[in-house]
Every structure is written in structure tokens, then in C-alpha cells.
Backbone:
């Protein structure tokens, strides 16, 4: 009997599992993401895929998508009404966005095709409020000097 | 002790109150607050509100790519005023809405705070602080404005002669509803009682509801004119799922229109499927494996509860998708069948016509598609 001393010698018989509906859907979604990326480059129009609206994707299809898109250079975390995780995938311009609520339950999960996800940008109204608040702080500081 | 009569005493109190009210009303300044201002004043950031709305986008079938635009438009509009009236009800519906997030109720940015900040709840007998004359004043001021959303829970006694089934401040339920519905942009019937009559409309000994209870839609129809055509959204359930009530109100805030409704005027986004469709026990139904008595071998294996009277196949609701108690579960997961609480006339409905009423009477298997 042959000695089992290296990985190559271990007799593993890999059985390719039949493609499930979830996997087929995941591949279709990759095509859709590709089309969105092309549209973004050609016209500047953003695209979004809502993964919660695709219940037939299943755990297998979900995992497939996550593995194939993989991790890119940028990751960000937002702490607002629970946390949100924003991760650029290995494909520039394709972002994986997960929103959680305060109990850390998944609220919604999106694949966004955009230069920068909307949720990361500082909203203009909040910035106007910040300007007022910063002014108040500076006034207070001026009194103490 | 003075011999002041009760009548004089009452007059004195009424005079004092009316003087007080006059001072109060002088202070009334027309203030139109936008949703954006209101959220900022309450310390809710734009990002938080956007995220809250994003959470609803999948269940409301609004594309997430549209959400930033809808949110931006909503922030510039005046805050949606809500007038909440209760008639023949048990307060379970309001309880469902405000108390279903016990894990988050002490956090400042909790879901219910965001919803109650995004809306201006101008009148609700259960939640508001004022009582008596002050409460009456709150209501008359709230319904004098235009374009508020009238939320109603409870059925209405069809009491045109003022027989006394439901009298409040000398007015019958019908009179109160009519006054409140006049300026409302839309009427939201929360719960099965408001939507279809529910328990108060269940048949009594003589085959009639003791209070002749009718649904809010039926009451509005009986007023005729613009009342009959007033947009009505039924959010049925005993009680309805909190996220369904909140989701419908958020849909209104974002779109300022009634969502797509089914033939029973329920939002299709929540009532489009039966609870049977997404039930995890459906695979046993398809294999004809049924629980025959509670705690039998089939029950322990999680078989289908059809023969225990489950009304899932004819009940349209989001229980199996949104679930209850922060997404914990739904009745079938606890081993009990669906009672069919979100369907019209569920108290008196015979599972099979002629076989009598009862929550444990099974439906006819042959009439249900796999």
C-alpha cells in the first residue's frame, strides 16, 4: 500500500455537487453586477442589488458571491442606529454594504456599484448643523480665555 | 363646609378651564416643521434615518437605489401629522407597535424613537399626557389641520341612534370618526377590528354583533360623499406585526401615497402571500405528514399543523417572513397552528361550511394547492 505522507498522496475523491438554484442565481447576479459596472463607467449611473430581496439565493449562492467578489482595499464601519460595514470588493467600484441594527441583527445587505456608497458621504444638512455647533463651541471657548 | 351645589362647582371648574384654555390658544403660532428639521432637533442624523429606511426597502419592494432620492424629498416635506383614534379595541395593536422592541427601548436611537420622531403623533388617547378638556382641545386642533394620517384601531358600533354602545364626550363612535376623517389625507385601520370588525363584530347569541360593530371602511362608506372614497389602508392582524404598521407609515412618509393594496385593502407588500407559502412546515404538508394531536409523534417531529386547525393556507400575512418579537418566530414554530387572525370574519369563519366554528377545526386538505 502506498504511503500516505503528503497531501498529494491522500486519496480524496472530489465529487462536484450538482448546481443548485442558488448557485445559478449567484452567477446570474455576477453578470448583472458586471453590467452595472459598465453602465457606471459609461453613464455615471450607480447600481444596487438588494440581497434581502433575493431569498432564493440561499446560503450556498450567498457564499459563492462573497467568495468570488472577495475583499478589496477599503473597509469602513459606521456607528449609527447599530453598525454598518462597508467593504470594497476585489473589483474596484463594487461595494458590499451590510447594515445591522442595535441588536446586531442584519437589517439589509446590498451590493452597490458606485464610486463611493451614498451612506459614507456626509449629508449636507448634517454638515450645516455641524457648522452651527462648531460655532457654538468656538464661542464657548472664547468666553473662557 | 360651604353649601356650594355640584352644579356651581362644575361651572366654576368649567370657567377656570376655559380661561386657562384661552391663554393657551393665544400662544398658538402656525409652525410648519419639516421632517429634516424635526430629525435634526431630535438628534437623529440623516445617515441614521437613511439606514432605517434602507432596512424597509426590501420588504416594501422599493429599489434601494431609489431610497436616497425618496429620503431627500421626504426630509424637505412637512412632518406627517398622525391622529390616532381608538374605538372598540383592546389596545393590543398599539401595544404591538410601541412595545415590540423591548431590547431597544432604552436606547436613544431605537426604532420606535425614529418612527415617533419621523411622525408627529398629535393625538392618541393612550399615549398622550393631557386628559379631559385639554385632550378634547388637542383633538379639535389636530383635526382642524389638513392632510394628516388618521390611524384607527377598533371597530365602530353602528350606533346611528346614539344607543350608547360607544359614547365619548357625548358623541358616538360614528360622530367621532366622521369628524376626524373629514380632513384626513388617508385612513389607516390598524388591526382586524378596525379593518373588518374583528371580535366586536363576532356574532352573538341572536346571530348579530351585540354592538352592531362594523369596520372603519364600512363606517366611512355609510357617511357617503368624499368619506366613501377616502383612501383606506387596512393593516389587519390581531394584533398586526409591528414592522407592518411601521413599514406602512414609513411608506406614506416616503411616498405620500397609498401602497398597492389587495382586494381587502391590505398592502400587498405585506399581505401578498399566505403564511403557508413561507412556512417551514410546508414540506411536511407536501408529503401529507400531519400532526393529529398535540404532543403526538408527528408534533415532536414538527409535522404540518393543518389537521390541528391551522388556517395558514388561507391567511394572508407576513408572520412567516417578518416573524414576531424582533424576528424570533411565529406560531407554527411554537407548535401551534395559525388562527387566521388577519382575515375578515375570522372569529365566525367555518373551516368547512356547515361543520361549525372553531379554531381547531381543520380546513379541507383537498381544497389547498401544494
Residues:
Amino acid at each position: 500500500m502506498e504511503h500516505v505522507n503528503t497531501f498529494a498522496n491522500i486519496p480524496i475523491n472530489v465529487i462536484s455537487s450538482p448546481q443548485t438554484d442558488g448557485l445559478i442565481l449567484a452567477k446570474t447576479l455576477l453578470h448583472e453586477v458586471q453590467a452595472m459596472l459598465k453602465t457606471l463607467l459609461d453613464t455615471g449611473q450607480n447600481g444596487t442589488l438588494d440581497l434581502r430581496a433575493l431569498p432564493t439565493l440561499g446560503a450556498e449562492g450567498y457564499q459563492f458571491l462573497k467568495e468570488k467578489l472577495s475583499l478589496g482595499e477599503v473597509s469602513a464601519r459606521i456607528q449609527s442606529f447599530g453598525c454598518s460595514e462597508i467593504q470594497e470588493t476585489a473589483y474596484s467600484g463594487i461595494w458590499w454594504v451590510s447594515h445591522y441594527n442595535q441588536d446586531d441583527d442584519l437589517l439589509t445587505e446590498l451590493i452597490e456599484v458606485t464610486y463611493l456608497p451614498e451612506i459614507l458621504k456626509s449629508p449636507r444638512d448634517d454638515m450645516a448643523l455641524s457648522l452651527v455647533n462648531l460655532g457654538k463651541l468656538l464661542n464657548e471657548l472664547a468666553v473662557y480665555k | 363646609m360651604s353649601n356650594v351645589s355640584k352644579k356651581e362647582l362644575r361651572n366654576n371648574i368649567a370657567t377656570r378651564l376655559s380661561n386657562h384654555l384661552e391663554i393657551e390658544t393665544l400662544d398658538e403660532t402656525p409652525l410648519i416643521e419639516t421632517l429634516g428639521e424635526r430629525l435634526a432637533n431630535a438628534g437623529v442624523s440623516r445617515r441614521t434615518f437613511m439606514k432605517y429606511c434602507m432596512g424597509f426597502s426590501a420588504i416594501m419592494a422599493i429599489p434601494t437605489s431609489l431610497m436616497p432620492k425618496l429620503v431627500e424629498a421626504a426630509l424637505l416635506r412637512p412632518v406627517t401629522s398622525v391622529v390616532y383614534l381608538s374605538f372598540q379595541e383592546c389596545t393590543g395593536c398599539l401595544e404591538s407597535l410601541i412595545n415590540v422592541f423591548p431590547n431597544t427601548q432604552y436606547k436613544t436611537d431605537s426604532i420606535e424613537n425614529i418612527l415617533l420622531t419621523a411622525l408627529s403623533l398629535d393625538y392618541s388617547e393612550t399615549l398622550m399626557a393631557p386628559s379631559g378638556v385639554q385632550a378634547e382641545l388637542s383633538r379639535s386642533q389636530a383635526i382642524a389641520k389638513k392632510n394628516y394620517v388618521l390611524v384607527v384601531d377598533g371597530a365602530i358600533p353602528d350606533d346611528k341612534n346614539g344607543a350608547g354602545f360607544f359614547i365619548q364626550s357625548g358623541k358616538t363612535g360614528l360622530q367621532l370618526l366622521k369628524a376626524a376623517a373629514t380632513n384626513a389625507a388617508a385612513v389607516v385601520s390598524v388591526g382586524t377590528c378596525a379593518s373588518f370588525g374583528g371580535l366586536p363584530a363576532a356574532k352573538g347569541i341572536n346571530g348579530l354583533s351585540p354592538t352592531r360593530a362594523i369596520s372603519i371602511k364600512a363606517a366611512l362608506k355609510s357617511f357617503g360623499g368624499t368619506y366613501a372614497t377616502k383612501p383606506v389602508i387596512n393593516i389587519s392582524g390581531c394584533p398586526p406585526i409591528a414592522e407592518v404598521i411601521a413599514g406602512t407609515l414609513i411608506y406614506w412618509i416616503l411616498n405620500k401615497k397609498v401602497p398597492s393594496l389587495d382586494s381587502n385593502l391590505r398592502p400587498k407588500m405585506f399581505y401578498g402571500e399566505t403564511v403557508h407559502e413561507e412556512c417551514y412546515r410546508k414540506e411536511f404538508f407536501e408529503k401529507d405528514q400531519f400532526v393529529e394531536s398535540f404532543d403526538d409523534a408527528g408534533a415532536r417531529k414538527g409535522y404540518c399543523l393543518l389537521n390541528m386547525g391551522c388556517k395558514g393556507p388561507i391567511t394572508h400575512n407576513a408572520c412567516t417572513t417578518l416573524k414576531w418579537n424582533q424576528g424570533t418566530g411565529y406560531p407554527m414554530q411554537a407548535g401551534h397552528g395559525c388562527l387566521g387572525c388577519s382575515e375578515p370574519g375570522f372569529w365566525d369563519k367555518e373551516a368547512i361550511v356547515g361543520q361549525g366554528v372553531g379554531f381547531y377545526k381543520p380546513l379541507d386538505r383537498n381544497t389547498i394547492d401544494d
